[in-house]
Structure formats: C-alpha cells, structure tokens
Specification:
By secondary structure, the protein is α+β, with helices and mostly antiparallel strands. The chain contains 21 helices and 16 strands.
Length: 589
Amino acid sequence: MALTLEQLNAADAATAVQLLDGLYEHSPWIAEAALAQRPFRSLAHLKYAMVQVLEQAGVQPQLDLIRAHPELAGKAMVSNTLTAESTNEQNKAGLTNCTPEEFAQIQQLNADYNARFGFPFILAVRGPRGTGLSKQEIIATFARRLNNHPDFERAEAIRNIHRIAEIRLNDKFGYEPALGHDVWDWQEKLAQHSEPGYAEKGQLTVTYLTDAHRACAQRISHWMRDCGFDEVEIDAVGNVVGRYKPAQEGGKYLLTGSHYDTVRNGGKYDGRLGIFVPMACVRELHRQGKRLPFGIEVVGFAEEEGQRYKATFLGSGALIGDFKPEWLEQKDADGITMREAMQHAGLCIDDIPKLQRDAAQYLGFIEVHIEQGPVLNEMDIPLGVVTSINGGVRYVCEMIGTASHAGTTPMNRRRDAALGVAELALYMEQRAAQDGDSVATIGMLQVPNGSINVVPGRCQFSMDMRAPTDAQRDAMVKDVLTKLEEIAQRRCLQTKLELAMQAAAAPSAPEWQARWEKAVDALGVPVFRMPSGAGHDAMKLHEIMPQAMLFTRGLNSGISHNPLEATTSDDMQLAVDAFSHVLQQLTSE
C-alpha cells in the first residue's frame, strides 16, 4: 500500500527513516536530517528539504554519496549486486539489455569519466517523464558531460541524484504527476512538426506561417476543443485563441498564453509550456463541470521569436493594436512577403485591427514559461516568481583605427580597433556585475578582412544591455557609452553607433506577483523571486493590462533555444497546480 504524508508526519523518528529507505543510495542520513523539518505540507516540500540537507552538508559528503552509486551498465549490474531501485531504473532504460557494442561503448565512457572526475557517472535514467531515457540519449549525455568542469559536474551529478530520489519518492507514495505528464506529452507531440531541412535531422524549427507552423496551430486548436473550450479560432495573424466562458454572461476574462513558434533548431518547451499549462487547467474545470466568475482566454501566440521576418512579438502585438502595416511588405530569405504568406495561409489581413483587446474586459495577463537560464536549476528550486521582465537596448557598432603591419608597428604606435573593443567588453562585464541583475553582452565581434599579420583597423561589434528597471538599464548604458568614448579617445580611435532596439522593462503588477507567490507557497516549495532576462509576450500585454509571470526550472543548466532544452513532468505538474491555485484565489476574491 502506498505511503501517505500523514503517516510520515505522524511516525516516530526511527520508523520515518525506515519509511524513506532507499531514496538515496546507501545514504539514509539525508532523509533522517530532512525529517527534522516535519510536518511536510507536500511531497514537493519533502523533496526540497532533502535538497537543502545535501546542499548544507558540503563537498565531501556529496562526493561520498556520488561514489555510493553504481556505474551505469557496470560491474554491479553484471554481478546482480545493484540495489532493487537501481536495477529497476537501469531495466527501464534498457541498460540490462545492451548489445555487446553498446556495452563496450558504455564501459569505455565509464573508464574515461572515472579517470577525469574520480567518481561514477550519475544520470536519472528514467528521464524527465519517468518512463526511461533511450540508450542513445544516455550515451549522448554521457559523452557530452565528459567535457564539463569538475566542480560543475559534481553539482550536475547531485542534481541527477535528487531527480532519482524524486522519482523513487513518487513510487513510494504512489504519486503520479498526471497533468504534468499530459502537458509533457502535448509538447512532445507538437514537436513532431518541424520544417524541411531540420525535420530530417531531428531538429525543431517552426517559423511564422510555414507548413509546420500552420500544422501546429491546427493541432493546438483541436486539443483546445478536446479540453472543453467553448470557442476556438485561429485569428487574423495566426494566433490560436481558446475561450472558456464565465459562469455569468458578461463576466471578465483572465488572459493567458505564450507563443508556439520556435527559433531555428530550438527546444520543445520555450513558449509552448505557457499554452499547455492553462489548457490542462481548463480541461479539469470542464471535466468537473465547473465555471468560474470569470472566463479564461488562452492564446497560442503565432510569432514571438522574429525568425522568418524582422517583426517580433507579432502575435501579442496584434492584441494591443501594435501591428505595423509596413511589416506586411517585409520579405523572408526566399523573397516571400509577409502579406503573401498570410494570404497563402488564408488569413484575413483586413481583420487584424479587430484583434485589439479592450483591457477593461480583462482581469489581467499571466504567463507560465520555462526559465531559459541556469538559476533555478543550480538552486534545485522548481518554480520562480518573476519580478520584472528586463528592459533592454541593442546597438550595432564599429570601432575604427588604422590597419598596419603587425611586425613593424611598435605597440605604442598602434591604433588597434579590436583591442579597443576588447577593453570595452571587459568593462561591460564589470559594470553589469555591479548591479547584480543587470547583464551586458557583446554577442557579435568581427574584424572585416582581418589578416594574421595585420593590426586590426576596423572592428564591428554589437552591444546588448538589459536590467529589471529602465532607470537601472539607462544608468548602465550611460556608463558604457562614456567608457566607449574614453577608450576611443585614449587609443586614437573613432566610433560609429546605431541604436538597433530599445524595449522598456515590464515590472510585474504587485498584486499579480503576490498571487503567484501565494500559489507557490501553498505547494510547499520556496518562493524564489527573480527577474526575467529574456523578453516575453507578457511584455506586450504589460502595455495595456497588469501582468505577472511564473518560471519553471529547466534541465541541462536551464539551456534554452537549444535541442537540450528540457524540464520534468513533476515540475510541469507544479506549474499546473500553481496556475490552478491562482484561479482559486481569483474566484475567492
């Protein structure tokens, strides 16, 4: 019979430790220390208590724990001396059924890994959904992680150990993150649609109004109907809009959603998570025959990434009346104008102005999104409450000096444009670090017609600077531009600057941020507040109504815009539960 939290909370210390036996390999001390935090409000609370114990234990106990684990497809498996839990996990991943070639490859990886790090390779082989990674995924991850820094790899091993413990805990309690599984499955199925040239390589690329993009819109619209939305449409810019009506005619709506387009060779969860989490909540309301005092409008925004055309936030922009007619004449790489693409897709361009929403009809906008960064992953915290979406500026720049012979020009006679930019890059790193949450990047850097034996006479570069408030951003920009001018004068260089983009910060509305915080706290996980360094559709809606966002932790250092982008169905379940809690708060208000 499955264990319950009530049993665990009520048990004496020795019994409680026994009830949690086997979560961490040969290391009952972790559960024993975590039990001091009883009573646990949820499984998530218990999981995080064990995370804290190991974090506070220090490096040596962490290394001892890692070394208590068996190698993947190693000697313990061959000799049948694995723990029952490890045997089950390696079975599910097919590691007990390797071909001789696969077994030899894993043995070599084990040897290389141990030689580099001094401990066995740890991977939660049951994967983000708990059903098991393929042998190919395991081998690819093994090879990739061999290149990590030792300190980082130790932390990554510990993160995987916590994931293993999470899955084992779910098994003990008979807990299944059923809605998280559904959200995970929707994203996997939607990722089957990708554009030619990428699909053949197993890569995900869905840009505005391509065949793959339109197929995604159709599939999302069908799923919305299956979930019980009262009205579903694909609007004049390709947004997929589902409306679940309020209990009484004339009630306001809660607006939510995110984008379903991707960058080229991107990840499966960026944007799409924010469509499927509220869809799961609406489906549950429909199954229960429940209506709320307000309606729920979920929008799968057609375009946010700016990949096919230069217009970004096209989908959410249309909802606030910010669709620029000149965009229609932009051409993609094949010379197809946006107007032609829209006509080919059967969209009614004349109806675009009608998409503008009346903010008075809405309570506000909330968005769930994968973090797209390493912070939550490194802290082993599943959810983050967004305080502000950073405001940013981008410049396209050039430093101009004099190209001269690398052998005959003395160091004190040079006008080296690349060195001027290098000095600026180091300053930007230091300046952004002063603020904590500010970031500054030179992402493009090139010496046109550069040669190995020529002092660079020109250097083209970009600058991207972001901060949680416009004032903080503007202060940093002022300092960087002042430094740029000082460097140029001192080094006898000239500069050219072009402002390429400027976007205002979008602070979360305090009352909406507070709702997310109450929801996260109710789940028994820490309330962690953080800014968003990336732009989101919420930035556009912020211009006409209050908004606030919730982040979900990503795996693989939280990497995004990359095929390695991932999160677990357990974390997705927590996002669904948090969203449902916000709906309950709004209902009780």
